[in-house]
Amino acid sequence: MPETSLLSQINPPHRLLMGPGPINADPRVLRAMSSQLVGQYDPAMTGYMNEVMALYREVFRTRNRWTLLVDGTSRAGIEAVLVSAIRPGDKVLVPVFGRFGHLLCEIARRCRAEVHTIEAPWGEVFTPDQIEDAIRRVKPRLLLTVQGDTSTTMLQPLEHLGEICRRHGVLFYTDATASLGGNVLDTDRWGLDAVSAGLQKCLGGPSGSSPVTLSEAMVSAIGARRRVEEGIRTDAHQDGDEEMIGSNYFDLGMIMDYWGPERLNHHTEATSMLFAARECARIMVEEGMDALIARHALHGRAMLNGIRGMGLEVFGDVNHKMNNVLGVVIPAGVHGEEVRRRLLEDFHIEIGTSFGPLAGKIWRIGTMGYNARKDCVLQTLTALEAVLNRQGFATVQGAAMQAAWDTYEG
Ligand SMILES: Cc1ncc(COP(=O)(O)O)c(C=O)c1O
């Protein structure tokens, strides 16, 4: 007989998730996910797939036909783009300014790329000139960037890189998992060839679906490696000339065939996640992308001012931080993990820790998606101040709250 706890229904505690993601999902997204399933080729389902493509074109600000979902977390979207685009032996350039740049290198190596990096200290970003110099030197086929590296909270400016890539004949990819929806991302105007993201940050959903958009140039690079599986291929199907993509599940050629008019069978689309992704996009588009980004900027600013009002130091180059995540230097004498434990246990508020060179040095506080709200900012500041005071860190009572309020009312 199993233990009773094994048989009790899941009933997670109510938390306010103010870390670097995941954050609390918008209740409308949770409701969409609880909708009953429909068959994979039901016209209702294929209709939803087409709507998802149209909605995410708005979110990514693109006219790219191939704008779709990769089933899996954000890492699935990254891996799908990289394994589909990188041919063994291709040179790639990765500007690394945090943990997620290292992730791109690691995935690219598994795709058997020749990986070249330039590195910026954690807390800083690159100038376009630094990246162009490296492109001149390395002559890569692809530039792989992270727009917002959650590990450091920094936002790499991308707007000039597309033009540089075009001049040097380089394909341009960015991982916008942490930044999309909270910061400007202009796929077409910035000349991006591929962007991937996830739902669990500014998009206000759970992790488990990765929206991806691909330019014509990227689609033709992938098309050159096209294969259609035995068992479903017909005489009408033509293979590409180049080496087959080294993954079946993440073969974007086959995923496009599934999302396209032929509806060639590949995986069984994760229906409940598609409902979630559609609702995330619907909510964002209804609010308007500019308004959504402005909301993230406002609440991010209020959190920043509140934290400074508390006498705490902010991590990194503030002029290049994402709107939606803030690095806070853990003051000397304060036990960072003890603060997080008390916030969680006594206030049910989660803030983030960090990793690599920043482990134990900064907390990361998110104001994103459904939680980019005044009440979440004020609650978090109040609780954090109380916990810090309890640990003997003196603050000017109420100054943090007043600084945040001033941001809203100033
Ligand atoms: C910038 C960035 N890229 C990739 C990932 C990986 O995302 P996932 O955990 O959804 O696979 C994350 C997760 O935090 C991230 O912040």
Task: Describe, in plain words, how this protein is organized in 3D.
The protein is of the alpha/beta class. It has 2 domains: 27-285, 3-Layer(aba) Sandwich (Aspartate Aminotransferase, domain 2); 289-409, Alpha-Beta Complex (Aspartate Aminotransferase, domain 1), CATH 3.90.1150.10. The chain is globular. A 7-stranded mixed sheet has the order 2-10-9-8-5-3-4, with helices on both faces. The protein contains 14 helices and 13 strands. It has helices spanning 4-7, 27-33, 43-60, 74-85, 99-110, 128-138, 161-168, 216-223, 252-259, 271-287, 289-309, 336-347, 374-390, 399-409, and strands at 16-17, 66-71, 91-96, 114-119, 142-146, 148-149, 154-155, 171-175, 194-196, 209-214, 325-329, 349-350, 362-366. Strand 6 and strand 7 (154-155) form a beta hairpin. Residues 21, 73-75, 100, 146, 149-150, 175, 177-178, 198, 207 line the site of pyridoxal-5'-phosphate.
Q: What is the gist of this entry?
A:
The protein has 410 residues and is an alpha/beta fold.
How does the SSE layout of this entry go?
Elements: H1 4-7, E1 16-17, H2 27-33, H3 43-60, E2 66-71, H4 74-85, E3 91-96, H5 99-110, E4 114-119, H6 128-138, E5 142-146, E6 148-149, E7 154-155, H7 161-168, E8 171-175, E9 194-196, E10 209-214, H8 216-223, H9 252-259, H10 271-287, H11 289-309, E11 325-329, H12 336-347, E12 349-350, E13 362-366, H13 374-390, H14 399-409
Helix pairs in contact: 2-10, 3-10, 4-5, 6-7, 10-11, 11-13, 11-14, 12-13, 13-14
The structure holds pyridoxal-5'-phosphate.
Residues 21, 73-75, 100, 146, 149-150, 175, 177-178, 198, 207 line the site of pyridoxal-5'-phosphate.
